[in-house]
Structures are given as structure tokens and as C-alpha cells.
Amino acid sequence: MATNDRLLTVEEAAERLGTGVRFIRRLIAERRIRYVKLGKHVRIADSVLAAYIDASTVPTLREARSRFGKAA
């Protein structure tokens, strides 16, 4: 996490991902994303959301094929 990284509320994170707050809270409860606990408040760094999006992005067939080479 970068020092100048913006910390988002759960509601802002849900809006950024286009999901509900419940989904973000489940990601936190299952520890599938990193978060910051500030007293009773939970914040998610912008870079953490970007990393989650990158990790969850499914490659196209062309990208997948180029990674494994041509079929025999």
C-alpha cells in the first residue's frame, strides 16, 4: 500500500466495484482483500481494490493461448 493511497469506506469500495456493500463486507470477513482497521471503522486502500480487480480479471482466449503456446 502506497503512503499517498486513498483509503475508501466500504460504501465507496462497493460503488467503485459496482457491487453492494454486503459483497465488500464478505470479502473482508473471508480475508480475501486487505483492509485497514481504524478503531471500529474499516477502510480499504485504493491500490488494494485495483489489485483485487487485476487478480479477478479473466484473460481473453487469445491471451490464454499466447501464454501456453500453440497446440500440437
Q: What do you see in this structure?
A:
By secondary structure, the protein is of the alpha+beta class. Helices cover 50% and strands 14% of the residues. It has a three-stranded antiparallel sheet. A hairpin with a 2-residue loop joins strand 2 and strand 3. Helix 1 crosses helix 2.
Blueprint (SSEs and pairs):
Elements: E1 7-8, H1 10-17, H2 21-29, E2 36-38, E3 41-45, H3 46-56, H4 61-68
Antiparallel strand pairs: 1-3, 2-3
Helix pairs in contact: 1-2
- Rg over C-alpha atoms, rounded to the nearest angstrom: 16 Å
Which stretches of 5+ consecutive residues score pLDDT under 50? none
| Beginning-to-end CA distance, first to last residue | 43 Å
* Beta-strand residue fraction: 5-15%
Strand element count = 3
The chain-level structural class is alpha+beta
Proportion of helical residues: 40-55%
Major beta-sheet overview: 3 strands, antiparallel
In one word, what is the shape? elongated
Strand order of the largest sheet: 1-3-2
The residue-averaged pLDDT reads 89
Can you count the helices? Answer: 4
Which series of helices and strands comes N to C? EHHEEHH
